[in-house]
Amino acid sequence: MKKAIWITWENQIRNKSMASLMDADLYIFAHKGNRLKRYVHCSYDTIRTIYFDNPAVVFAQNPSIFLNYLLILIRPIFKFKLVSDAHFGGVIDFIGSSVFQRALDRCNKSVDAVIVTNKAHADHIHSIGGNVFVCEDPLPNLECYNNHVEEIEKMVLFICSFDIDEPYDLALDAASSLIEDGFMLYVTGNYKKVNIKPGNYPHVRFLGFVPEHEFYEKLFQCSIVLDLTNHENCLVCGAYEAMSAVKPLVTSDRKCLKEYFKSGTVFTRHEKACLVEAVKTAYANKETLKEEIRNWKSLIIKEHKLKGEAIRSYLGLT
């Protein structure tokens, strides 16, 4: 069987689940230090791995666009097929830079195939002449983190990275109303990078950036998962994690989210009153929503398997 490897310069859960789906050996290269130092170390590790593994196919996460261009550069030497797994920032430059968008488009035209998570991004790749497959995140297997502890009633886990697309101010504001009905908002992520002072939010519990096992422990303890984005065409990671853990989800009223997460989910506009009502609705109907998720999961796992087989067949890996 021809060998495939998956290379990423970021430790993100999609890389693990997608590498498994593609039956590819996963390599995560992450180094501390400034950007130049990281790029040098990660580039060396990447080239060295390809030299010794001699893969027929290399999958690479985008971002990093630097990683993808490095692989495009060395592809003629090592003669592998290159597939870019393009997350939101690997297809459309959300800052709006025309120069960076041209760099993304050139990259996505140059690789042998691009994997995206939604039809809108697939349409864009088609429009620039690229080969594209749609494959949403395979649901992560989180059962090893499930200690079967009892849920904490009315615990809302807000999965947040405090990035520019996340309306975290809205969620923190809504928490002041939710606590009146007994709900407590637990917030993940590095709140310090946006200068939030926890003392200003006595009705919120800031967890900060926690180790993976602690994060999933909280996920299994909560009653409701909350994950929000201002972006269109962005399937938020917390939604997949909520589905995997069978937790009712409250997320943004966005077309791509509504088209994919059709079960176990309550959608909300980015208004305080709407968000508060969405959380209350999800909690009141949590058992029904959980059953919807269980049924949806069984179908989506089969669907992902078929999508994985189609990509592997196209690349000559079967």
From TrEMBL:
Transmembrane segments: none
GO molecular-function terms, A-Z: glycosyltransferase activity
Protein name (database record): Glycosyltransferase family 1 protein
Organism this protein belongs to: Oryzomonas rubra
Pfam family, one: Glycos_transf_1
Domain Glycosyl transferase family residues, every copy: 151-292
Coiled-coil features, chain-numbered ranges: none
InterPro entries to which the protein is assigned, alphabetical: Glyco_trans_1 (IPR001296)
Keywords for the protein's UniProt record, in alphabetical order: Transferase
Top-level taxon of origin: Bacteria
